[in-house]
Predict the structure.
Amino acid sequence: MQTFLDTAVILLPLAYLLVAVDYGFLFFSSHPVAERTATPALRGAVLLHLAYLVALTIHRHQFPAATVAQALAMVAFFVAVVYVFVEWHGRARSTGFWLVSLVFFFQLLSSVLTRPNPPDRAIFHDPFFSVHVLLALLGYTAFVVAAGYGFLFLQLYRDLKSGRFATFYGKLPPLEVLERMMTGALLIGFAALTGAVVTGALWANRLYHDQWLHDPKIVFTLATWVLYAAALLLRRLRRWQGRQTALASLAGFGAILFSLMVVNFFFTGGFHGFL
Amino acid sequence: MTAPLLEPASGSRQEPPLLLVGTDYRCSPIELREKVAYGKEETEEMLVHLLARTEVAEAFLLSTCNRTEVYLQPRDEEGAYHAILDMVFLHRVPELERPGRLYVKRNGEAARHLLGVASGLESMVLGEPEILGQVKQASALAEAVGAEGPVLRRLLRSAAAAGKRARQETAITSGAVSLGYAVVELARNIFRGLEECQVLLIGAGEIARSVARPVVERGARELRVANRSLERAQQFKAEFPNAEILAFDDRLTALQTADLVIASTGADEPVLTRAHLKAAMKHRPSRPLLVVDLGVPRNVEPRAGRLENVFLHAIDSLDTLIQRNLKRRKEEVPKVEEIIEQELTLFRGWVRGLEAEPLIARLQKQAEKIRRNEMEAALARFPQETHEELERLTRSLVRKILHHPSTRLRTRDGGAGDLSRLDMVRELFHLDDDETAD
């Protein structure tokens, strides 16, 4: 089992890199080989990823998000699954290169940060806590997807505005579809993050009373939550349009990366220091 | 006579026996082309007349607004050529006799030309997709009057395959290359579907109509037109009965709900200003608005294009799009040519297979004769009940022995060795003698 886990950690980023290159050929040159191979290759990589996460769960007897590396691998997996679903639904195959590149990025970070024999965290055996973590990871996933489609929205918007009809024009789904996918992902992400904040608060309050409020991770997560809430509210009030929402989704992506990487590694004194 | 002369045949047995005489937009102006344009019934009639000539074995006539071409499988090439020239072309337009008005292609070149036509390589607008349907319709017509024989039928199947593959495997037909379709393409990059778009036309002249046609054809259902002259607006409505006519001043109210605005008036001043669009966008902040300005001088204030969610494109921008798409289509030409060569190779292989068929038949006949002779001599030595089994066994032996040589003869590679191989088979098996003996 350990050998499989060690091998999968190396294989997964490589597999996603190859799939991203395949989708790159599809996006930039509509290469016929890439037309045939991209989707099966991605599905193969996702199956390998699933096997890795299942093996990790069985091997460690806990929800596989006990370390930053594991959390990143979960986000990468969920983003890949979301994209597989989007493609299966018959939409936006041309966005595969960008979404799979994000998957590769997160899995590469995960593989680089993976350490042999991470400590066993008793807290991750608690199902209620696992729900909190799962909701947080689903929220992050949705925000990553929103950022991906937000980025593509901005590129197509720029092409259409300028009349240059450059790289992105004609290759992506219509602007309205990109906007709808971005907004849908933002709403799902916001709901999941809200759920994560609420379940986390309930759980922490039970054990730590009000001390947990000073935890840097929680402070930063609440700030991220406020950013997304403001973006969605301004959009609802028709103050913000697609472009501003897309910019907010990119800012949110930056906040998530900061939260996952910088806060977890450099602000380790708080409640979330166990990561 | 100064029409293209039919040069002597090369005598090659490697090429399909074909003859093409035609004229297209590159050779003849519209005034001449329209005189040799054949409608459905005229085509049927002409094919029947051509087939009545002893020089013609099979015939196919393709007549579109850009070309009239006749493809024949001739029995007598010279006679067939003059038949086409006189009956199809010169009889109607003697001016086509002038040099350069008609082209003549033979054998492989004629086949390659038809495959190029079906793939859109020969079209006035490179990659124009309708030609494939026109070739198929003309083929069905020839089939219906019995003008298509095995060679032309197989050639037309190759042409259809090349055209289909060119569309599916290359981008030769992709991207808009006309003003109207450029507008459709822009709209499709912004909106989920044209059927959900409300279209507002400001101006109802010829340009507006030419753009409205593809927009409606591609699904737009809600069409509103604001024009200063009510008479012209009514003319517009005659062509587009679903269109709603608005007073010119109502255009500003209509802006609030429109998704696609096409302005094409002859006004000297902008009919839509930045202020107009800014006011309209307040009623629709999250919905994009595509504004196409086809007026010269411009109908829409250029500054309006800087407004959030307003996509303003003038005629230059559309031209950039068209030129970009044409360039992309041109880049696809080598890929289409490769497909044509592949299909042509298959067609040539099939034609060569036809040449080998009589030889294969003779080979089988001779083998069967030998088998029968041997069986007659041998059967008396075997019990009656084994005769049927022996029949079956010897037939099977002959069939299996001849299977591989027959397959090889049918699928020759077209190289110089092919003919000598046929001769060698004749020589080895004394097939000429056998034929004489039979």
